[in-house]
Every structure is written in C-alpha cells, then in structure tokens.
C-alpha cells in the first residue's frame, strides 16, 4: 500500500462535492428528518430508543453508499486511461485495489461518525455502551460486501455513470431492504431476498434481537444467510467483470 497515493486519493475524494453532499452528509440529514425530529423518538424499541434505531439504520446506509460509490469509481478508473497510467508506476494492481478499499472504508467510517455524533447530540440512547460499538462495527464490516458490488458495477458498465448507477441502486436496495421504513406483508417477504436486508438485520440485532415492527421475529441465521448469499453473488459478478475486462485488452 502506498501512503502517498492514499493521501492523494483521500484528498481527491474529499474534494468531490457529490461525495461530501450525498455520501457524508445525506445520511445524517436523513436521520435528522426521520429520527431526531420524529414524535415519539424517545420511546424504547428493544434495548434502545427509536432515535437510536433510526440513527443506526442511517449510519449503515451511509457506510454502504460510501463504499459502493468509491469502489465503482475505482473499477472504472482501472479500465480506462487512469488504470494504464497507474500501470506505468511501480504500484502493483493489488496495492491499487487495497488503497481504494482503505479509502472507501475510511469514508464509510467518517459518514458513520457524523451520523453517530448527530445522534449523540439529539438524544439517541441505548441500554449499554457495547451496543453503540457493536452496531458500528457490524455496519462497517458488512459494508465491505458492497465494495464488491461497486467493483462489479464499475467493471461491467465501464462508464463515468457507473458510480452514479451503483449509488442510485443502493438507495433502491435500502428501500426494499427494510432500511428506511418498516415493511410488512408481501413487501417484507420480497425484502428478505434483497441485498441490504441481511445487513440491516444484523446491525439492528443488538437492539431488537430479531424482532420486527409488526411483532414477528426473524431468525439470526436468515440474516447471515442473506449476507453470505449476496457476498457470493457480488463476488461472482466482480470476477466476471475482471475476466471480461482482461479479455478485451
């Protein structure tokens, strides 16, 4: 990993207005809109109040958005002129990928810190300190799965719009993954098979232990199976994108 290139990449991403607005600030704004300012936010839901429930959900969404957007951009750069420029330097391809991954996770962590900080100052509460650390760690860890998704999108679409398409679809995944509003009935049945359902269920597990808004309870193994299944799918798509990219060179 090249520290100089990492610093340059981090500064470049930080100067991108869309990253700052939509990746770092939008999740916090959504928490303020749907969590902090909602009537009844002090009511308890499991081991935390409703404000905390919304805060943890928005932090997870922010982490996924950051990782997806940056990994999609990295894949597009690798298949276009910038990738050839990097190829002329001593930097190895794995160093390029590792640097991009670290930068993406750093942005995800920053997005989460912003949301959690806003949550602290607006009354988000949990029964124990370990719940804060657990939800944050699960969000950051599971967001790495979507680095594969962003990488696959960038490799398969190979255009400047790939990052936008990947980021936009993350919002779609969040709606149908039970992230923004509690789903029920047929919509919930469909949500169980969408990419963010397992991740958000794991993030909420320290608070709700699987209980849903409609009173039903989801088993832990289903969340884990969802995450594992989509990891395999995104990994397969990313590998297909890499092979197709190399075949055209």
From TrEMBL:
How does the entry describe its membrane topology? Multi-pass membrane protein
Q: Which GO terms describe its molecular function?
A: ABC-type transporter activity
Provide the Gene Ontology terms for cellular component.
membrane
Question: Where this protein primarily resides, as one coarse class?
Answer: membrane
| Record keywords | Membrane, Transmembrane, Transmembrane helix
Name of this protein: ABC-2 type transport system permease protein
Return the Pfam families for the record: ABC2_membrane (PF01061)
Q: Please give the start and end residues of each transmembrane region.
A: 20-40, 52-74, 94-118, 130-157, 163-183, 220-242
Q: Which PANTHER family match?
A: ABC-TYPE MULTIDRUG TRANSPORT SYSTEM, PERMEASE COMPONENT, NODULATION PROTEIN J
């Amino acid at each position: 990993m090249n520290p100089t290139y990492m610093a340059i990449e981090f500064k470049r991403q930080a100067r991108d207005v869309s990253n700052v607005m939509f990746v770092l600030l939008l999740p916090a704004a959504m928490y303020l809109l749907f969590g902090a300012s909602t009537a009844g936010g002090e009511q308890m839901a499991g081991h935390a109040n409703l404000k905390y429930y919304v805060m943890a959900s928005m932090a997870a969404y922010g982490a996924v958005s950051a990782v997806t957007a940056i990994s999609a951009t990295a894949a597009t750069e690798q298949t276009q002129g910038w990738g050839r420029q990097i190829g002329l330097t001593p930097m190895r391809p794995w160093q390029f990928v590792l640097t991009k991954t670290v930068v993406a996770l750093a942005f995800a962590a920053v997005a989460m810190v912003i949301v959690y900080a806003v949550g602290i100052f607006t009354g988000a509460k949990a029964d124990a300190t370990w719940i804060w650390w657990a939800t944050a760690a699960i969000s950051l860890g599971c967001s790495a799965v979507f680095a594969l998704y962003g990488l696959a999108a960038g490799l398969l679409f190979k255009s400047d719009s790939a990052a936008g398409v990947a980021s936009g679809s993350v919002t779609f995944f969040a709606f149908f993954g039970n992230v923004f509003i509690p789903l029920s009935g047929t919509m919930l049945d469909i949500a169980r098979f969408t990419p963010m359902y397992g991740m958000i269920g794991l993030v909420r597990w320290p608070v709700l232990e699987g209980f849903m808004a409609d009173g039903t309870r989801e088993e832990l193994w289903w969340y884990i199976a969802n995450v594992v299944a989509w990891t395999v799918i995104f990994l397969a798509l990313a590998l297909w994108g890499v092979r197709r990219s190399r075949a055209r060179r």
